[in-house]
Amino acid sequence: MLEKVQFPGAQALVIGPAGENLVRFACLENNYWRSAGRTGMGAVMGSKKLKAIVFHGRAQCPVADEDLLRQCVSDIRAKAKDNKGVEAYQRYGTPVMVALMNSVRAFPTRYWSEGMFSQWEKVSGDYLRANYEVKSRACPRCLLACGKLTTVKDGPRRGLQVEGPEYETIYSFGGLCCIDNMDEILHLNDLCDRLGLDTITTGNLIALTMEATEQGKLKEQIRYGDAEAAARLVKQIAFRQGLGDVLAEGIVRASRELGMQDVAVHVKGLEPAGYDPRVLKGMALGYATSARGACHLRATFYKAELSGIIDPDTIEGKAELYCDWEDRLTIFNTMIFCVFFRDLIQWEDLIPVVKATTGLELSRDELRRKANDIITLTRLFNWENGFRRKDDALPKRLLTEPVKPSGKQISEEQFNRMLDDYYRIRGWDEEGKPVNFRL
C-alpha cells in the first residue's frame, strides 16, 4: 500500500479494531511488531476517526558536533563489550527477567496475591530458546538486539510468529492469569497486536475477571489458567461484546461494575508492570509518583534494586537515589534514548552526548535541574487537573496484604516516608504541590 503511493521506506502508525471501538487501553502499532502500549492512545486516535499516520522523508536532524558524537557512540560501544546486561538482552531479550523475578519472589502471580509462579520455568527465557525458533531483531543500528522473533515449531499453533513475547506480556498473561503454556501466551500476544490492545492492561483485566470468578462475583466461569477463555475475552474486549464491553472501559470502571474495587490493583487508573512493590519498595514510590499512573519506565528503578545498588527493603535514602535515576531517565526521554541503555549511559556519558547533539555544555547538576523542571511542570499540569497527594498512592490492598509465599510487605508508614522525601527533594510541599517554581 505504501509503495502504491510511491513512498518507499515510509512507515505507518496504526490503530486496530480496539482503537476504532474506543477501548480505553487501545494502543498504537508500528513497524509491524512494535506497540506503543500504555494509556490508550489508540482510543484517542479512534475518537478522531484517525486510522493511521504515515511518515516518510529523508531529512536528518542536524547535530552540533558530529565528531564528538561519533566519539560518544564509540565510547558507549566500548562499554557494551563484555557487559553482562548487554549479553543478556542479546541472548534472551526481556524474558530474561522471568527467572530473576521469580527468584526474588516479586513476579506478580494469581492477580497480585503471590510473588512466584510455580510453573515459571515453562514461560522463561531459557524455555523459549530451547523450544522455539528464536531470532534476534534490533532497532536500526542498535547493539542490544533485544527483540526476539519467535516462531512456534509444532503443535496447534505451529507457524505462529511473534516478536516477543516481552517480559511484561509473560507476567500479565503467564503470571497474573496463571497460564503456563507458552504457545498460548504467544497466541494472546498475537491477538493483542492484531487487535491493538495493550498486553499489560489486558492481562491485568482478564486476571481480575478470573479472580472475580473465584470470589463468586461473576456468572461467567473464567478460571485461572484457562487460555481459551482468555483468548475469547481478548476478542470480546476489542469488539466490545458481552463482558468485554465492561472490561473495555478500563480498570476503574470495570472493577466498580464487577464489585472488585477493593481487589483491583492500579495507580491513577493504570496497572503496574511486573515488579511487585511489596518486595521492590522503590517501585512503590515509582508507581505512585509517576504522572501517568503505575509506570515502571520513568526510572526503571527495579534495576537499581535487583542489581544490588540499593537493598530492596531499604527506606532511608531510597527517594534520593530514585530521584537521581528518574532525573537521568528524564534526560533520556528528552534525547529519545532507549531506557535499556541506562547501564551504558551514566551522567558522565550524558554530558558529552548533550554537548555533541545540542551544543549545550551542561554539568550534571545543571542537567538534573532541567530534569526536575520537566518533572515539576508535568506535576503542575496534573495539579491543575485535580491530582493531589491522595492520588500518589498504592492501592490499599498492596499496603495491607503481604505477598505470598515470602510474606513481604510495605507499610503505609514506610511508603509515606519515601513520598515525603520525594516531595522535599523535588521542591514540592507536603501535599505534593510545587512551590516557588520558576523556569
Automatic annotation (TrEMBL):
Pfam families: AFOR_C (PF01314), AFOR_N (PF02730). InterPro entries: Ald_Fedxn_OxRdtase_dom2, Ald_Fedxn_OxRdtase_dom3, Ald_Fedxn_OxRdtase_N, Ald_Fedxn_OxRdtase_N_sf, OxRdtase_Ald_Fedxn_C, Tungsten_al_ferr_oxy-like_C, W-dependent_AOR. The keyword Magnesium does not apply. Coiled coil: none annotated. Residues 9-57 form the Aldehyde ferredoxin oxidoreductase N-terminal domain. GO terms for molecular function: 4 iron, 4 sulfur cluster binding; electron transfer activity; metal ion binding; oxidoreductase activity, acting on the aldehyde or oxo group of donors, iron-sulfur protein as acceptor. Its cofactor is tungstopterin; [4Fe-4S] cluster. Keywords: 4Fe-4S, Iron, Iron-sulfur, Metal-binding, Oxidoreductase. Belongs to the AOR/FOR family. This is Tungsten-containing aldehyde ferredoxin oxidoreductase. It comes from Calderihabitans maritimus.
